[in-house]
From TrEMBL:
Keywords: Glycoprotein, Signal. Residues 1051-1074 are annotated as: Disordered. One of its GO terms (biological process) is cell-matrix adhesion. It comes from the Eukaryota. Residues 1054-1074 have a biased composition (Polar residues). PANTHER family: OTOANCORIN, STEREOCILIN RELATED. The gene is Otoa. GO terms for cellular component: cell surface. This is OTOAN protein. Coiled coil: none annotated.
Length: 1098
């Protein structure tokens, strides 16, 4: 209908364009006003944005000139505003809105593949694809789509597109990677002179390797072995060859060794460290250009120490490999032995790179303090240290320095985590303040809570805490107690911008700062949104609320479900006609009825991005929400468009819906999203398995890429199916099992992994020192590293027969296995006794390396250990399975060995004791000093102690914050589970407005007979999250009125609904609000419609 107009304008906007448009309509005897034209186009275009399949159809009907115009304005326009007649369009925001829609992006991707390479230059089309794919490559680039890529491209366009795919490599599935390799290979082979081709030569040139980039890992082994040596030599000489080889994270040992063999055959002597690679003005040791290939170097015969050290230096990057860490560990160990030939460990320490992580504790113990001091510049940059190793090295370094100072600590880098809490606390407040401000501050978040508390306590004791508190950044600030904050002054909003806050801190600071600051200044800090109460929401002026809503929207992940509920009620009250549809989820179920027609798409899109768990923890409401989701989807998930739209809502869809309403095409697009789901039910997983088998066929026929793409869902297969996959793709199955970790549903997978690893190593290792081990295979280091959680399948006898050196090397890995039973743990404990000797001689780093194995220590054995260090206790205190008698033994051991009593414990001691505090009796709790308790109270509030212990902690809390009846929201948030120790009268006395500020964990810990004392009004005001925490036994004690109130709280209801006070009217169909409640952009429809020359349905 607009074709003649655009012929007149030659696709250039002029001031009289609208006049021409109106004249055209009048000439067709279509009588309409400018405003009615504007509204019709706006409605039509909005509908297109919400129906991207229809948009795709419209775009596909454009002729070449129209398509060029559309692409020009969408992708190449630099203008922020466009003028059409007397209307100025905010084109910047309009484009942003278009590209934020996943469905529109998919449409642009598909139409670009379909039309662009015919209508525009290939380089322009590659640029457009680049912009679109960077939004969601993993969803759009499916293997079946790769076939639509052009296979005839000019050289520059092909290189640019290949470069884009290399950038997107990690964001695409394994099957897509394989398909893209096939596409690139097809084009590269066409450029190869086929007249020179024969079976003994390869089409792969140096340039092909460079263009393939990371896709070179898909070359067949036999193809690599045929590559011309001249081409290999030329490739290695390229400027970016090293960078490319540094990124082949998923290369296999076989391919790597084949490439190394060709490189070696091409004339480079990789053993000769004097071989120099010249490039312009620079010279490099040739070994430096091998990238990740060095991780698989296997020619160690007659290697000298210098070459071994050079290899080790290059192998620091090998931890980036996707698998094969056991093989890398073994190679480093062999190179370590060669590197130290005819030299002591003290002499070579600084030249061993990150292979030092492979040194055993006894080797590290043998180091001299001077050697550690001299090598600290290397050691402080190494990652992957075990806690025990860092403790040894820190101790050695500091014993050389004699005095712990700011300068010494600043030299330690990552090793600062090994400094004992007592040592940190012995530093001067001034030096600790320097550490907080200095370069070492980047490591402070890696310190344990007990170490952080040691630093804070010392700084606070100086009386000058105010000047230091502003320098505490990130998560470390969360350790600052509420009582510390109360005592300080001089806070302002700008100093809080780089700090993470607990809710208790945010509640206090927001209230304090709101007296002298505008909301915009406070909310713009981000973290302070945690401190906005329901009362603050309700008291906000309408304009202030709407203008600042963007801060809440941006930081939705920081808000509690209760705050989101308050936010939704506030928006409903002031502007319910433009409430963002996703907020309706936080209101009672009946408000979901307003999500109809055009509101469906923005509702699904935003809830799919935000996550239903944040907005709605109630199972009752979840069913209503999922029913609405299914309605909005027209009861089916047809294709990738629907998958794009619902995002992580897919994790919550009922099994029956997945079974009967989800197409295989949609399943292919959804697999990546399913893998991100945290809590799929068994029934959902069963349906996903059914779909995967429909999609990919029998698992017996799966390719390596299919197995990788299915990933964690392989646990759904039978033991027999898993064994077949483990036999075909042992390394891939090992990689998947490592990623899954200790989940109960993975038992058969772990069993298959164990059998696969056992069969691959096979030999029975004899233990000559024990007659009962002669016919028993013993675990090797290589197997233990590979198996991870699958180590649970070693028998007790096999664990008993483990070589002492193997245990010493791998104790931390074995201690991290969560599935060992008590007999296995006992066997490992006895092995520790055999290796380390008498219990009183065990060092702190040995005790903490035990992990779960420590649980097998008896009360008597625990009493024999040296437990003087609070850092040792803090690691033991992280175990939650201690019996009461074991916990008492640890507590008494610490008090005896450190020469303390309960009354002398400092705040960091209390933090370090952790779950051991639950073993205190009432007399002991009463003797804790109030000042120390107040500093540690937030950490103590994380413990799940018995009711009698919580009651005593509650009494201590009253000595800090006053009588329980005077506590406010920030105090309730600070003390956590301690609130579970309140008695009936105290609980009844709380104002209903404070009920949402009980932490959810505290609600669960209120005894049922106490919980039933809450009034219906108090229960109705618990808030959705706390209401969802009410246990079955608590619920049983409630009467009908209380249960009704609980239902209201779960639903997010208000006792007097603010909705009744509003005169704005309900959301209207077709009246979709713009983000942040702002009015829709005037003229948006006119421009886009004119560009695309769409036919308007009047």
């Amino acid at each position: 209908i607009f074709d003649p107009v655009f012929c007149y304008s030659s696709n250039v906007w002029t001031a009289d364009l609208l006049t021409k448009v109106m004249a055209y309509f009048h000439a067709q005897e279509i009588m309409l006003t400018f405003s009615s034209l504007q509204m019709s186009i706006k409605s039509y275009l909005k509908n297109l944005l919400y129906q991207p399949r229809q948009l795709l159809s419209e775009l596909q009907q454009l002729d070449q000139q129209q398509f060029q115009t559309a692409m020009k304005y969408l992708f190449n326009s630099k203008k922020e505003h466009l003028e059409v007649g007397n209307i100025i369009l905010d084109w910047g925001k309009t484009r942003e809105r278009i590209f934020q829609s996943p469905g529109v992006n998919r449409t642009l991707f598909l139409v670009t593949l379909d039309k662009c390479f015919l209508a525009l230059s290939a380089l322009d089309c590659v640029d457009i694809l680049s912009q679109v794919l960077r939004v969601s490559a993993v969803n759009y680039l499916q293997p079946d789509v790769i076939g639509s890529l052009p296979n005839l491209l000019l050289e520059d366009a092909f290189r640019n597109l290949s470069s884009l795919f290399k950038d997107l490599y990690d964001r695409t599935s394994a099957s897509t990677q394989r398909a893209l390799y096939g596409w690139m290979k097809q084009i590269l082979q066409k450029s190869y002179n086929m007249s020179e081709f024969n079976e003994s030569t390869s089409w792969v040139s140096a340039e092909s390797l460079w263009i393939l980039g990371r896709y070179m890992v898909h070359l067949p082994l036999e193809e690599i072995l045929k590559i011309s040596l001249n081409e290999i030599r030329l490739f290695i000489s390229y400027d970016n060859a090293t960078k490319q080889l540094d990124t082949v994270y998923d290369i296999t040992p076989e391919l790597a060794q084949a490439l190394l063999e060709r490189i070696n055959s091409s004339g480079f002597d990789m053993r000769n460290t004097s071989t120099i690679y010249r490039q312009g003005c620079f010279t490099f040791s040739f070994m430096a250009v091998l990238g990740l290939l060095v991780c698989f170097y296997d020619d160690l015969e007659q290697m000298d120490a210098a070459v071994a050290r050079a290899l080790l230096h290059q192998m620091i990057k090998c931890n980036q490999l996707r698998g094969f860490q056991a093989e890398v560990h073994e190679l480093k160990s062999q190179l370590l032995n060669i590197a130290m030939q005819n030299q002591t460990l003290n002499d070579t320490l600084g030249s061993l790179s990150d292979a030092v992580v492979g040194l055993t504790s006894s080797q590290l113990e043998s180091l001299s303090p001077e050697a550690v001091h001299n090598a600290v510049a290397t050691l402080n940059q190494v990652s992957g240290w075990a806690k025990g190793q860092v403790m040894i090295l820190s101790s050695k370094y500091l014993s050389y320095e004699k005095v712990l100072s700011f300068y010494n600590v600043s030299q330690m880098g990552a090793l600062v985590t090994g400094i004992g809490t007592q040592s940190l606390h012995s530093m001067t407040p001034r030096e600790l303040a320097q550490i907080i401000r200095g370069t070492t501050s980047q490591y402070l978040s890696d310190l344990s809570p007990v170490q952080q508390q040691g630093i804070l306590r010392k700084i606070a004791s100086s009386g000058d805490f105010s000047s230091s508190v502003k320098d505490i950044q990130g998560a470390f600030f969360k350790e600052v107690s509420l009582s510390y904050l109360w005592k300080q002054t001089g806070y302002n909003s700008s100093m809080l911008k780089e700090k993470d806050l607990r809710s208790s801190q945010a509640l206090y600071l927001y209230e304090l700062l709101s007296k002298e600051n505008y909301p915009v200044d406070l909310l713009s800090t981000g973290q302070l949104v945690k401190g906005v109460t329901c009362q603050l929401f309700e008291s906000m002026d309408t304009d202030i609320f709407l203008n600042n809503f963007k801060f809440f929207e941006m930081n939705l992940h920081l808000l509690s479900p209760y705050q989101v509920n308050c936010l939704a009620w506030k928006f409903w009250k002031v502007s319910n006609a433009s409430i963002p549809p996703f907020l309706l989820l936080a209101l009672p179920s009946e408000y979901l009825e307003y999500v109809t027609g055009p509101l469906c798409v923005p509702f699904l899109e935003r809830v799919g991005k935000t996550g239903m768990d944040l907005l709605n923890p109630s199972h009752h409401k979840r069913d209503a929400v999922l029913q609405k989701v299914q309605e909005c989807l027209n009861s089916s998930i047809a294709d990738g468009y629907d998958v794009d739209l619902i995002g992580n809502l897919i994790c919550h869809l009922p099994p029956a819906f997945l079974h009967g309403r989800m197409s295989l095409k949609a399943m292919a697009a959804a697999l990546h999203q399913f893998k991100l789901c945290q809590q799929l039910s068994h029934e959902q997983k069963t349906e996903i398995k059914y779909k995967l088998l429909q999609l990919y066929g029998s698992s017996n026929n799966w390719t390596a890429e299919t197995a990788l793409d299915v990933g964690p869902f392989i646990v759904l297969l039978s033991k027999e199916e898993l064994n077949i996959l483990a036999e075909k793709f042992p390394d891939i199955i090992l990689q998947i099992a490592k990623a899954i970790g200790p989940v109960s549903s993975a038992e058969e997978l772990l069993s298959a992994v164990f059998e696969s690893v056992s069969n691959s190593t096979g030999s029975i290792r004899l233990s000559p020192s024990r007659a009962d081990c002669l016919r028993t295979r013993a675990p090797s280091s290589n197997e233990i590293i590979k198996l991870g959680e699958a180590n649970v399948f070693w028998s007790v006898q096999e664990l008993k027969c483990m070589d002492p050196g193997t245990f010493d090397k791998n104790v931390e890995l074995l201690g991290a296995v969560s599935g060992f039973n008590s007999s296995q743990l006992t066997a490992l404990k006895e092995k520790a006794k055999q290796v380390w000797g008498l219990l009183p001689d065990w060092r702190s780093y040995q005790i903490i390396s035990l992990g779960h194995i420590a649980l097998a220590l008896t009360e008597q054995e625990l009493s024999e250990l040296d437990l003087h260090s609070i850092d040792t206790i803090s690691v033991l205190g992280q175990q939650t399975e201690w019996t009461h008698t074991q916990a008492r033994a640890i507590l008494q051991g610490f008090l005896d060995d450190s020469g303390q009593t309960i009354s002398t414990l400092k705040s960091f001691d209390l933090v370090g004791l952790g779950t051991i505090l639950c073993a205190l009796n009432s007399t002991e709790i009463t003797s804790i000093r109030t000042a120390e308790f107040s500093a540690a109270i937030a950490r103590i509030g994380l413990l799940f102690c018995s009711t009698p212990v919580l009651r005593q902690f509650k009494k201590m809390t009253e000595s800090v914050f006053g009588a329980a009846t005077s506590w406010n929201g920030s105090v309730l948030q600070e003390i956590g589970t301690i609130a579970g120790g309140l008695n009936e009268d105290e609980l009844k006395a709380f104002d209903k407005s404070l009920m949402p500020y009980f932490q959810p964990s505290a609600v669960r810990h209120i005894p049922p007979e106490i919980f039933q004392a809450l009034s219906p009004e108090q229960i109705a005001n618990l808030g959705p999250e706390n209401a969802a925490m009410v246990t079955g036994s608590q619920r049983e004690q409630l009467d009908a009125s209380q249960l009704q109130s609980l239902g209201l709280a779960l639903d997010g209801a208000r006792s007097s609904s603010p909705g009744t006070q509003s005169t704005a009217g309900c959301p209207q169909e077709g009246q979709t609000p713009a983000p942040s409640g702002a009015p829709c952009l005037s003229g948006f429809g006119i421009w886009l419609c004119a560009v695309f020359t769409l036919h308007l349905p009047f």
